[in-house]
Amino acid sequence: MWFIVVLKLSLILAISGCWLLIPVLGAESEPDQDLAHRIYRLLDALSSGRRLSSSSTFALLLAQFLIKQKLRYVAPTRYERQMYYHLLHRMEHIRESSELAQEKGIQQQILSNAFQRNVLLLPPSLKWGELDANGEYEQLAEIYPKVVNEGQLNRTMSDLCLLDIVELKPPNCKLVSGDCLELLTSVAPAYGYQRTHQVLLLYVLQHQVCAPHLSPPKVYELLARSHCDEVEREQNAIRSLGLPSSYRDLYLEQATICGLFGYNEFVNWRNVMEIGSWLEGHPLEEAAAANGDGEDKQHISDLALVFYVNALLLLH
Questions:
Q1: DSSP string for 168-216
Q2: Could you tell me if 126 and 262 are in contact, meaning their C-beta atoms sit under 8 angstroms apart?
Q3: If the chain, 316 residues long, is cut into consecutive pieces of 10 residues, what is the mean pLDDT of each piece?
Q4: 203, 224 contact by CB (below 8 A)
Q5: What is residue 100's three-state secondary structure?
Q6: CA-CA 20 to 30 A from 41: which of 13, 125, 187, 214?
Q7: Considering only CA atoms, which of 281, 255, 278, 257 is closest in space to residue 268?
C-alpha cells in the first residue's frame, strides 16, 4: 500500500513541477538549486494563466532550444539530465496546455518556426574578457535619456527580418529581403531596444542551418562582439545613472540577449542576484508604471526565464 501512495505522490510532483525542488542525493551546488527554484517559480506563474502571450511563447521556445543545445554538446551528470529533461517536459506542457493569444500574420508565422525548424545547434561556452572593458560611457550617460530610442530598427522591421530568418531552409539559403542582412551588419548608431533587436536577429540567424551558407562563422562572432561591446557600454551608462526602474526591462533584455552569446560581462552571478531582487520586490510594477505599459511586468518575467536558464547552463 505504501508503495502505491509513494508512486501517486511522485506522479503528482512530476506533473506539478515540484519534483526537482526536493533535495536529491548527489544534487548540485546550492547556487544551481537556487537557479532551478527561480526558473520553476517563473514556470509556475506561466502555467497559472490560460493564455500565453507571443512574448512568453517565444521565451519558452528559446529556453527549450538552449537546453537542447547544451544536451547536444555537453554530457550531463545524472542530476543535470534529470533536471534538464524535466524542464523541457514542463515547458512543453505549458505550451501545449495553454491557449496562445490570437496572434495573426507575422507573429503566428514566427512562432510556428522559431527554434523548431532548420536550426543549427552550436557548442555553448562562457566567454571571459572578450568585450572591451574600457569603453567610454560617462558622456553617453549624460545624453542617454535622449538617445536611448534612436536607431534604424523598429518593431515592424524587426519582425519582418525575424520571419525572413526563421523561414530560411536549404537548398535556397537566401534572405528574401536584402534589407534584413543590411540591418544586421549596419554600423549606424543604435541604442536601447533597437540594438538588442539587432543582436537577437543575429543570434537567431547564426543558429539556422543556412547560416554557414550566408557567412563564415567568424563573421557572426565578430558582429556579436561588436554589438555587445556597445551594449556593455550602454549598461555601464545605465548603472552610472543608478539603474533606475524605468531602465530595468531594457537592462535585463540587454543582459539576456548578449548573454546568449556567452559573454561573462552579462551572464554572471551579480546579475543573477540583482535581477532576482527585482522579481521578488516591487520594481517590476514601478518599471511598468514608468513606461506606461501594463505588459512590462510579464515581459520582464519572460526575459528572466531565458536569462536564468542560460545562466543555469553556463555558470555551472
A1: -BTTB---S-HHHHHHHH--S---HHHHHHHHHHHHHHHTBTTHHHHS-
A2: yes
A3: 42 42 48 88 87 92 98 94 96 86 77 94 95 89 91 78 94 85 84 94 96 94 95 96 94 98 96 90 49 69 97 93
A4: yes
A5: strand
A6: 125
A7: 255
pLDDT at 103: 59
Number of other residues whose CB lies within 10 A of the CB of residue 24:
14
Q: What angle do CA 100, 259, 58 make, to 5 degrees?
A: 10
Q: What is the pLDDT of residue 19?
A: 41
Write down the pLDDT at residue 184: 84
Q: What is the pLDDT of residue 236?
A: 95
Do 17 and 286 touch, CB atoms closer than 8 A?
no
H/E segment holding residue 99: strand 99-100
C-alpha span between 41 and 137 (Å, rounded) = 35
Q: Which residue has the cell 545562466?
A: 311
Position 155 scores a pLDDT of 75
Whether the Cβ atoms of residue 212 and residue 173 lie closer than 8 Å to each other: no
User: Using CA atoms, how far apart are residues 68 and 73, in angstroms rounded to an integer?
Assistant: 9
Contact partners, residue 270, CB within 8 Å, separation at least 6: none
d(CA 87, CA 20): 9
